[in-house]
């Protein structure tokens, strides 16, 4: 499995942006959760559809010589669920199918570059709004400052299509 196998960006649960190229989840609260190599591969496989345990183990650990233990497999499932929870998605979206494998049981969609940019802007606006109304935060954002931040964000999340 190579990085070029997954050309699409995803919107998970209509809230979290998954950027396979960068191996990150962009959470609604502006957290940037970096996925491990194996978690990235596992999530990509799950977004392709229901996957058997054997197939997942082959795809994820294909470059490693030797056998992969069940505990290693279950550990990766646990870590991926934990990363999703940190991004604000229930870990239950990864459904274990007894004696078969795993399935992504949530809502997801491919992100067009324009939609991705809009969603990233919304995420940043929500984060800025939360900061500005937080009584513990002494920072006040004026409208011009918000415009500058949005311009900065829109430059960061430009996705090229090849």
UniProtKB/TrEMBL annotation:
<dbReference type="GO" id="GO:0006355">
    <property type="term" value="P:regulation of DNA-templated transcription"/>
</dbReference>
<dbReference type="GO" id="GO:0003677">
    <property type="term" value="F:DNA binding"/>
</dbReference>
<dbReference type="InterPro" id="IPR036388">
    <property type="entry name" value="WH-like_DNA-bd_sf"/>
</dbReference>
<protein>
    <recommendedName>
        <fullName>OmpR/PhoB-type domain-containing protein</fullName>
    </recommendedName>
</protein>
<dbReference type="InterPro" id="IPR016032">
    <property type="entry name" value="Sig_transdc_resp-reg_C-effctor"/>
</dbReference>
């Amino acid at each position: 499995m190579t990085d070029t196998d997954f050309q699409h960006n995803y919107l998970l649960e209509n809230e979290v942006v998954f950027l396979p190229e960068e191996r990150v989840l962009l959470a609604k609260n502006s957290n940037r959760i970096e996925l491990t190599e194996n978690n990235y591969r596992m999530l990509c496989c799950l977004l392709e559809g229901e996957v058997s345990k054997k197939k997942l183990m082959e795809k994820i650990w294909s470059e490693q010589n030797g056998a992969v233990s069940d505990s290693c497999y279950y550990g990766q499932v646990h870590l991926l669920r934990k990363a999703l929870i940190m991004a604000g998605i229930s870990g239950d979206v990864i459904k274990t199918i007894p004696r078969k494998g795993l399935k992504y049981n949530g809502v997801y969609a491919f992100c067009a570059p324009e939609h991705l940019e809009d969603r990233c802007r919304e995420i940043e606006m929500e984060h800025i709004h939360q900061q500005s109304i937080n009584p513990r935060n002494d920072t006040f954002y004026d409208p011009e400052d918000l415009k500058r931040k949005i311009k900065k964000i829109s430059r960061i999340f430009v996705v090229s299509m090849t």
